Amino acid sequence: MDFDFSDDQEQLRDAVRKWVDRSYTFERRRAITGAGGFDRAAYGELAELGLAGLYVAEDQGGMAMGPVEAMVVLEELGRGIVLEPLKHTLVTSGVLGAYAPEDVRSAWLPKIASGEALVVLAHQERKGRYRLDVCEAQATPAGAQGWKVSGEKSIVPAGDQADAFLVPAKANGKIALFLVERQAQGVSTRGYPTLEGGRAAELTLRDAPATLVSEEGLTVLEHAVDIGIACTCAEAVGAIDKTMQLTAEYLNTRKQFGVTLSTFQALRHRMADMKMQQELARSMSYYASLKLNAPPEERRRAMARAKYQLGVSMRFVGQNSVQLHGGIGVTDEYAGSHYFRKLTQLELEFGDTLHHLGEVSARMQDTAGVFA
Amino acid sequence: MDFDFSDDQEQLRDAVRKWVDRSYTFERRRAITGAGGFDRAAYGELAELGLAGLYVAEDQGGMAMGPVEAMVVLEELGRGIVLEPLKHTLVTSGVLGAYAPEDVRSAWLPKIASGEALVVLAHQERKGRYRLDVCEAQATPAGAQGWKVSGEKSIVPAGDQADAFLVPAKANGKIALFLVERQAQGVSTRGYPTLEGGRAAELTLRDAPATLVSEEGLTVLEHAVDIGIACTCAEAVGAIDKTMQLTAEYLNTRKQFGVTLSTFQALRHRMADMKMQQELARSMSYYASLKLNAPPEERRRAMARAKYQLGVSMRFVGQNSVQLHGGIGVTDEYAGSHYFRKLTQLELEFGDTLHHLGEVSARMQDTAGVFA
Amino acid sequence: MDLAFTPEEQKFREEVRAWVRENLPPEIAHKVHNALHLTREDMQRWAKILGKKGWLGYGWPKQFGGPGWSAVQKHLFEEETALAGAPRIVPFGPVMVAPVIMAFGSPEQQKRFLPGIASGEVWWSQGYSEPGSGSDLASVKCRAEKHGDKYIVNGQKTWTTLAQYGDWIFCLVRTSTEGKPQTGISFLLIDMKSRGVTVRPIIMLDGGHEVNEVFFDNVEVPAENLIGEENKGWTYAKHLLSHERTNIADVNRAKRELERLKRIARSEGMYTDTRFRDEIAKLEVDVVALEMLVLRVLSAEKSGKNPLDIAGLLKIKGSEIQQRYTELMMLAAGPYAVPFVKEAMEAGYQGEFVGAAYLAPLAATYLNMRKTTIYGGSNEVQRNIVAQVVLG
Amino acid sequence: MDLAFTPEEQKFREEVRAWVRENLPPEIAHKVHNALHLTREDMQRWAKILGKKGWLGYGWPKQFGGPGWSAVQKHLFEEETALAGAPRIVPFGPVMVAPVIMAFGSPEQQKRFLPGIASGEVWWSQGYSEPGSGSDLASVKCRAEKHGDKYIVNGQKTWTTLAQYGDWIFCLVRTSTEGKPQTGISFLLIDMKSRGVTVRPIIMLDGGHEVNEVFFDNVEVPAENLIGEENKGWTYAKHLLSHERTNIADVNRAKRELERLKRIARSEGMYTDTRFRDEIAKLEVDVVALEMLVLRVLSAEKSGKNPLDIAGLLKIKGSEIQQRYTELMMLAAGPYAVPFVKEAMEAGYQGEFVGAAYLAPLAATYLNMRKTTIYGGSNEVQRNIVAQVVLG
What residues does the Acyl-CoA oxidase/dehydrogenase middle domain cover (chains C, D) (predicted)? Predict the structure, then answer.
C-alpha cells in the first residue's frame, strides 16, 4: 500500500508538463480548435516524447509502461486540456498488445509507438448508447485470412484523421474485433468538431477489408473501454486540479463590495466542497489505475465505481468553478470555460454518471471497500 | 386562482392555535409521551372544538367543511406537534361519509364527530410496505349482513386506544373495506410508542365480526390514503414553520467567537436554502389540499407530487435545523428535537419520499404543471 | 382558496391563445421549440407583431397605451406565449426602461421614447454592468460630465446583452464622486449611433455572440436625455429592479422545456430508463412547486393581502430549473452531446446531422444556461437577500 | 504505487484477525452488529481484554508500553476490530489524555496514570466543552484558583460523553484572565470522586443517556494533577486535537455498516428495488472513495513524502457517510421505523418485536447519528479549515 510516485514516474510527469507548458499553449490550442480540432504535428510531438508507445512492448519500439505511468501522463494532458487523442492510442495499443495475433502486433504496434499510425477505437453505434453488447455491424469472411465489415460507427475520436480503427462487428452472431484501415476501400468518414473543441467523426463501412484482432470481441472491448475509463479519470483529475487553481486565484484577486471574493464565507465553503470532490476524484483515479490489471469482474466493478465518482466530481467542480467566476466564467475568452467544456465532455465519455451508477448497482456484492 | 383564506378559515385557525398554545403545552405533551403517547382527554378537547366532525355532514353533527379547512387545522396541529391522531379521524370520517352505506354512516359519524368514537385506518401489513394493493387479510360472509375478518394489520395509529378500525380485507379475491370494533370478539391489539412520541399498535383479527363499508376497497383505500397525504403535508408545513422560527431565533441569539451565529454567511445561506424548502413545502401542501377533490387519477398524481416535495423539504429543514442548533439540537430537553422527530415520522407516513418519487415517475404525462 | 382561474380569466386565456395561434409565425415557433438560434429578424418580427396588437408592452398601464392587465392576466399571457413557442420578449425596452420612463421621465421623454418601444421599432440595450462591478452595481465608474446642455460620457459597460442590435442604450453613469457611491449615479439614455460608441462582442463559452462590451469615448449626449434628476439614478434603477418580478421564475418556459425533455428522452430510449426517468420526475415536481409559488405571488398581488416577499426564491429556483432541464437534455443525448456543430444549431441547416437533428444544440444550450445563476443578481446575492428576510 | 499491502502488513493483519476471532466475546459482537445498546460492562470488558494484550493503547509507542505500531498497522488493527464487530474503544483515556500525559506529563504523572489507562481499569472523561463555548473552545470559563498546593475548581462542563461512568476527567480550566483567551487555560486532571463534582445526565433526542453536564463546586484538586505548565493548556489541547487523525473518518465501521445496510435492505425486499439499491450503490462508492482517501493519508505518513493536509475532509466525509447509512437503514425499514420501543433496542429483550428484531433500533440510531456532523469540530468549522488550506 503505497501511493508515492517513483522517481521515473516523476520525471515522466515533468517531461509531459514541460511540453504542455511550453508547446501546448492556450493560443496554440485555440488555433487547433479553429482549424478543426486535431493537429497531427502536436500528436507527433507527443509520440516523440515516447507517449504513443507507453503501452507498447520495448521490442516493438515502445516503453512497456503500466497504468500508473499512463495515469501520470493523462493527468498532465488533462491539466493542459490537450485535444489530441493520446488516450485512445493507449486504449488501442493496450488491447492490441494483449489480444492481437503476432502478425497484427508487429505490423501495427511499432507504427503506433512512433506516431506514424494513429489507431482509434470505433465501437459506438447509434442505438448502443453506452452498452458494449449492442452491435449491428456485420463481418463476413473474405478470402483466406481476410474479412469484410459493414456498418456504421459513431463519434469516433479524430475519426477522419486516424489511420486505422478497431471495430467490433458480429461474425457468426458473436461480437469479434477487427482492424480496419481508413484508406481502405469501402471506408468513409465525416468529421466534425466536439464539445471540448476537439474532433470526431462518423464512420461508414461498406464491405471494408478488415483484419481479425480477436474473436472474443466483447472481452477485448470491455478491456479497451476500461483502459479508456482509467485514462479519462486521470485526465479529469488534471483538468480539475487546474480548474481549482484558477478558481482559487480568481477568488483571491477579484474584489466585490470592496473586498476580495475569498473573504465571503459562503464562497469559502463552496471551495471546501470543491476541494472534497477534487480529493475524492484523485483518490478514485488512483483506484482505477491500480485496478486496471485486476481480473475482469473486479476490474469492471472498480472502473464503474471510479467513473461514477469522477462524473460527480467533474460536474460539481466544473459547474461551481463557472459559478464562482461569475460573468467571466461563461466567456470563451477565459481559459476556465474551456476546462468546463473539457470536464463536461469527459463525463460523457466511456459511460456517463447515471450509466455507471447502474453498473455499480448491478455489480454490488455483500461486502464493499477498496479490497472487496 | 386565489390562495387567501376566508375569514371563517382564519377564525378556525385562530381557535386551533389558541388551543395549542394554551392547552397543549410542551410539558403536557411530554407527559402524554411519558404516559404512552395518547391522551383521550386531549383528543376530547379537539373534538369539543368540532374538529373531529370537520368532514362530517351537518345533519350528522359535523361541520361539513372541506380540504382547505382540514389543511388549516392540521397546519396548527403540526405547529404544536400534537400527538393525538385527528388526521386519522379525518381520513376515516372522510371516506365513511363518501362511501359507507347509510346505516353505517348514521351509526358512526355522529359518534366520530362528537369524539365519542375514535376510528382509524388499519391497512398496513408486514409485506405491504407502502403498496395499497397488498392485502393478506381475508373476509368471509357471516350471517345475513355480516362478515368475519381475519388477518394482521400493523402500525395502526393509536391502535390500542381506538374504538374501531377501517380494515381492508379480501372478499372473494377482491379488496373490500370493513369496519371492525376493537371490543369485538377476536380482536386483539398490542400498543407501543412511536418515533414522534405518540402511539401505535399491532392489530390481530381472528374471525372478528365486521361491517362492510365498501366492496370497492382499493378505490376507497386510495382515497383514504390521499386524505392522509394532504393532512400530512399540512401537518408538516406547521412543523416546518415552527422549526424555522426556532432556528432563526437561535441563530439570532446564540454567540460563538464573540458574535451571533446569524452573522456567518454560510449559515445565512443555509437558512435561505431552508426558507426555499419551507415555501416549496407550503406551496405543495396547498396544491395537495386543493387537488383532493379532483378525479382519482389526477388526485393520485397530485398527492404523489406533493408528498415527494414535502418529504424532501421535511428532511432538509429538519436535519439542517438540528445542525444549525449544534449540541442543543440533539437533546431531548430542547423542543426543536421533537419537531425533528415529528418531521422524520411524517416523512415515513403514507409513503416515503422514494416511494412517491416512484409514483410521480409512473404517473408522468407528456405535459406537466399545476393544471396538467 | 381556489386553484382554478375564474371564468373571466379562463376566457382571457382563450382569447390570448387564439390570437397567438393566428399570429405567431410557425417558423419562429419551430426554432423556439427546438432551441435553434434566433436571429435579430426573428426577435424583431415577433416584437412588431405584438406591438401592432398593443401587447409588446403587456405590463404597461392603459394611460401609456398598454393593455392595463392584472397580474394574473400578465401571467396568463406569458404562459400562453411561452407554451406556444413564442420567443421571450427582449425585455430591455418594454420591460426595463419603459417603466422607468413612465415613472420618472418627463412628458416629453414619454412622448418621444415610449411609442418606439411599444411598437418594437426601436431596440434598446441595458448599460448597467461594468468591468469590476458585477454584483456590486453601485461601484459604477463610467462617467458623464455636464458641459452646457450636453453630457460627455466616457467609460465602459460590459455584459451588454444583444447590444450589437441596439439603437438606444440606457445607462447608469457617474455624475458625482461625492458621498456614498449610490448617490452620484444618474440614469441616462444614449443613442447608440452617437459618435464614440463602440460595441465589441464577447463570445460566450458556447461559442455564441449574445453579450458585448460597449465603450464610450467622449460621447456627446443631450442633457434632455437625462431621466429625472441628476445623481438620483440609483433610485430609478432600484425601481426597475423591483419591477416585474414574477416572471423571473420563467416557469412557463420551464413547462414547455420539460415537455421537450420528455420528447427527447423518449426518442433516445431514456424515457423508460428508471434512473433517467426519475430525474425527469424530480424536475417535474420542481416545476409544479415553482408554478405554485408563482401562483401564490400572483394571488397575493391580486388580493393585496399577505404580500409574499420571495423574489429571491423565484430567481434561485427558476434558474436552477433552467439549468437542470438543459443538463438533463444533454444527458439524454449522452454520447451524442459530444458532437458540437455550430451550423447544425441554426434553423435551415442543410447538412447531415450526427444522430438526429434535435440533438445538435443540446450541449450548447447546457453551456449557455450556466449564465442564469450568475446574471440578474447571482444566486449567491439572492441568498443574501432571502437570508435577510428570514434573519434580519 | 501499489494498492496491495506488503506481505508483512498482510501477515500482521492475519495475526490481529486471529486474535480478535479468539478474544472478542460473541455477545458483544452481536450487539455491535445489530446496533444494540452497549452497557458500561460491555465496553469495559472489551477494554480490559485489549488491555491485557497490550492493545488498548494501540497507538502508543513502545517506551510507554504500547505496541509501537506504524500508521498502517494501526489502520489494519482498526479495520479488523471494526469488521469483527468490536466496540469502538472509548477514546478519552487511551487516545486522548494518554498522548498528552506522554508528551507533557511529568515522569511521576506518567507512572501514576498510564498503567490504569493501558489496562482499561480507569475510565476517563473529557472536560472541554462548556455551555456557550461549543465550537469556540478558547472561551473556557470553568476556573481553577491556586491555593497553596491545591487548585479550587468552580464551573461547569457539558456534552461530557459517558461521564456517568467516569473515574477521572481531564479538563481545560481557566487559570488566568489576562491576555488572549487562549493564554490563560490550563490542563488539569480531576478525580471524579472528589467532593463537589456532580454529574447530571443530558438525555439525547433518541432518548439515550450518552452525555452529561459536569458541575464543579469548590472541588479541591492537588496541584500535582496539573499537566505541564500553568496557562499552557491550550497548547496541550491542540496537540491532542492534532493526534490520531485518520480514524476520524471511521471508514472501517462504515464498511461494516454498509454490509449491515445491505442485509437489512435484502430482508425488507428493498435490495432489488432499483431506486433504493441505487442509493446503496452511491453510498458504496462514497465508502470506497473515503477508504482510498484514508489509505492515501496512511501512505503519506508511511513514506513521509507529500503529506496530505486533509483531516477536515476526512471528518466531513466520514460523518456524512455515518449519517447516510443510518438514514438509509431507517428508510429501508420504511413504516417499520415508526415503532420506537426502547426496550427492544436492548440485547436480551424478551418481548415481541414489531416486524422484526433488527428493525427496532434503526430510527434511534438515525436520530443519534445527527451528532456526528456537530461534535469534534462541527462540519461548518471543518469547512472553514479546509477553505483555509485552499484559499489561505
Answer: 127-219
Cell 482559487 -> residue: A248
Task: Determine how many CB atoms are found less than 10 A away from the CB of residue D305.
Answer: 11
Taking the C-alpha atoms of residue C366 and residue A343, their distance in angstroms, rounded to an integer, is 13
Which of D210, D220, D244, D284 is catalytic? The answer is D244
Looking at domain C124-232, its CATH architecture is Beta Barrel (2.40)
Give, to the nearest 10 degrees, the angle between helix A353-362 and helix D274-303: 90
- pLDDT tens-digit map of C124-147: 999 999 987 766 778 899 999 999
Residues of C in contact with A338 (CB under 8 A): 205
- The three-class DSSP label of residue B295 is coil
* Integer Cα distance of B75 and C96 in angstroms: 40
Give D206-219 pLDDT, tens digit per residue.
999 999 999 999 99
Q: Does C202 touch chain A (CB under 8 A)?
A: yes
Closest CA to D358 of D239, D264, D228, D234: D264
Predicted confidence at residue C243, as pLDDT, reads 62
The top-level CATH class assigned to C250-389 is mainly alpha
Q: Which residue reads 507517449 in cell numbers?
A: A51
Q: Do D1 and A251 touch (CB under 8 A)?
A: no
Contacts of B344 in chain D (CB under 8 A): 330, 363, 366-367
Nearest CA-CA distance, residue A207 and chain B, Å: 43
C-alpha cell at D374: 456537530
Number of C-beta neighbours around residue D22 at 10 A: 7
Tens digit of each residue's pLDDT (9 = 90 or more) over A102-121: 999 999 999 999 999 999 99
**Helical ranges in chain B per DSSP H:** 7-23, 26-34, 40-48, 67-79, 86-99, 102-114, 217-253, 265-290, 296-325, 335-348, 353-362
Q: Any idea which residue has 476556573 for its cell?
A: D143
Shortest CA distance to D221 belongs to which of D186, D176, D258?
Answer: D186
Chain A residues inside the 8 Å CB shell of C335 = 124, 129-130, 154-155, 348-349
C383 closest CB neighbour out of B269, B360, B364: B269
Cell of B3: 390562495
Kindly report, residue by residue over A243-292, the tens digit of the pLDDT: 999 999 999 999 988 899 999 999 999 999 999 999 999 999 999 999 99
Please compute, for residue D285, the number of CA atoms within 13 A of its CA located in the half-sphere on the CB side: 32
When scoring B251, B263, B264, B265 by the number of chain A Cβ atoms within 10 A, the one with the most, hence best to mutate, is B265
Any CB–CB contact under 8 A between C278 and chain D?
yes
CB contact under 8 Å between C205 and A332, yes or no, is yes
- What domains lie within chain B, and their CATH numbers? 7-114 (1.10.540.10), 119-215 (2.40.110.10), 220-362 (1.20.140.10)
Residue D113: CB atoms within 10 A of its CB come to 23
Neighbours of chain A (3+ CB pairs under 8 A): B, C, D
Tens of pLDDT, residues C179-203: 888 899 999 999 999 999 999 999 9
The identity of residue C262, as a single letter, is K
Helices D274-303 and A265-290: crossing angle in degrees, nearest 10, is 90
Same topology, domains D124-232 and D250-389? Answer is no
Inter-chain touch B369–C255, beta carbons under 8 Å: yes
Please give the backbone phi and psi of residue B207, each rounded to the nearest 5 degrees, phi first: 50, 45
Give which of B251, B261, B269, B323 to mutate to test A binding, by max A Cβ within 10 Å.
Answer: B269
Is D244 noted as a catalytic residue in this protein?
yes
| The model's pTM | 0.97
Instruction: Decide if D288 and A308 are in contact by the 8 Å CB cutoff.
Output: no
Query: Where are the domains positioned within chain D?
Result: 7-89, 124-232, 250-389
**Which residues in chain A have Cβ-Cβ distances shorter than 8 Å to D298?**
1
Residue pointed to by grid coordinates 433526542: D205
> What is d(CA D176, CA B153) in angstroms, rounded to the nearest whole number?
65
